[in-house]
Amino acid sequence: MNGVEMVRVVVDAEKCIGIGQCELLEPEIFRLDDETAISVVVGDGLLPCDRASLIADKCPSASISIGR
Ligand code: SF4
Questions:
Q1: In CATH, what number does 6-67 get?
Q2: Counting atoms of ligand 1 from 1, which one is nearest the CA of 58?
Q3: Confidence bin at 3 (pLDDT 50/70/90)
Q4: I need a labelling partner for 23 at 20 to 30 A (CA). Which of 4, 31, 46, 60 fits?
Q5: 1 pLDDT exceeds 60?
Q6: What is the structure's pLDDT at 20?
Q7: How far is the CA of 27 from the CAs of 1, 3, 14, in angstroms?
Q8: Distance, CA 2 to ligand 1 centroid (Å)?
Q9: Any atom of ligand 1 within 6 Å of the Cβ of 10
Q10: 3-state secondary structure of 28
Q11: Ligand 1 pocket, mutate which of 9, 12, 14, 17 (most atoms under 8 A from CB)
Q12: Chain-centroid distance, C-alpha 3
């Protein structure tokens, strides 16, 4: 066990304004949809808790929430 708590990030498509900050910070996890320009979570969406919190804080429309 490495002691790093992993959490799952979720994007609220209704609130996302397509700035792309999340994709810039974690391109493996977030991707802007080509047509809608709304961020979607790709893969399992798992990030270390600290990193997930930081990215959620940086979203200008507070669209990113953290699950378990
Ligand atoms: S940072 Fe927030 S508003 Fe910008 S694309 Fe990601 S989820 Fe959408």
A1: 3.30.70.20
A2: 1
A3: confident
A4: 4
A5: no
A6: 97
A7: 26, 24, 21
A8: 30
A9: no
A10: coil
A11: 17
A12: 22
**For residue 61, is pLDDT > 80?**
yes
First to last CA, the chain: 18
Tens-place pLDDT, residues 31-51: 999 999 999 999 999 999 999
| CB of 65 closer than 6 angstroms to any ligand 1 atom | no
Q: Is residue 4 within 8 Å of residue 64, measured between CB atoms?
A: no
Buried b / exposed e across 37-57, counting CB within 10 Å, b at 16+?
Answer: ebbebeeebebeeebbeebbe
